[in-house]
Design brief:
Blueprint lengths: L1 E4 L4 E4 L16 E5 L5 E5 H31 L4 E9 L2 E8 L6 H15 L9 E6 L4 H5 L7 E5 L2 E4 L5
Parallel strand pairs: 6-7
Antiparallel strand pairs: 1-2, 3-4, 5-6, 5-8, 8-9
Length: 166
């Protein structure tokens, strides 16, 4: 619900019951957090707000990254069998599976260029992504490159969660 009081130049938002509001200008200096296991802690309000802003920025950057990788996959779909975005070495890994067992210099160059382009993209400043290319491989071999905690599979112009069909 949104209600506006235009005479006072103040816009008030009626938050749904499942929303917690933090007012940056409130006199309260700390926020009490009650975790699911009922343990509690307090944290400075300004730190909470900054952490939430960073999380929001990271969400936007992840959406942008997913979009850029999806465009890349569509452009090279004739040369690749599968592509995955997963966790690796404290960041993301974009794992590309080639259609051919033979070395494809053009595809390898394209993966390297993508790696550099993402690393130098100011809009993706907090994203650490390492792009790599593999020949067609078994599910068992592929699983050593993929982290099941976070695994997105690009296939047929779609992003699927999980799945490691080689």
């Amino acid at each position: 619900m949104l209600s506006a009081n235009l005479e006072a130049d103040v816009v008030e938002f009626d938050a749904p019951d499942n929303v917690v509001e933090l007012d940056w200008f409130s006199d309260t200096e700390s926020v009490r957090v009650i975790q699911r296991d009922q343990t509690r802690f307090e944290i400075q309000k300004d730190r909470v707000i900054k952490i939430l802003q960073l999380a929001n920025d990271s969400d936007k950057q992840l959406e942008l990254l997913l979009s850029k990788l999806g465009e890349w996959v569509r452009h090279y779909q004739r040369s690749i069998k599968n592509a995955y975005l997963t966790l690796r070495d404290g960041g993301f890994a974009f794992v590309v599976i080639s259609r051919s067992t033979a070395c494809d210099d053009d595809l390898e160059d394209a993966v390297s260029e993508l790696d550099v382009r993402v690393a130098n993209d100011a809009d993706l400043k907090s994203m650490s992504v390492n792009a790599l290319i593999l020949p067609p491989t078994s599910k068992e071999s592929l699983s050593s490159f993929l982290d099941s905690r976070f695994l997105l599979h690009y296939r047929d112009n779609r992003i699927l969660q999980g799945g490691s069909g080689s």
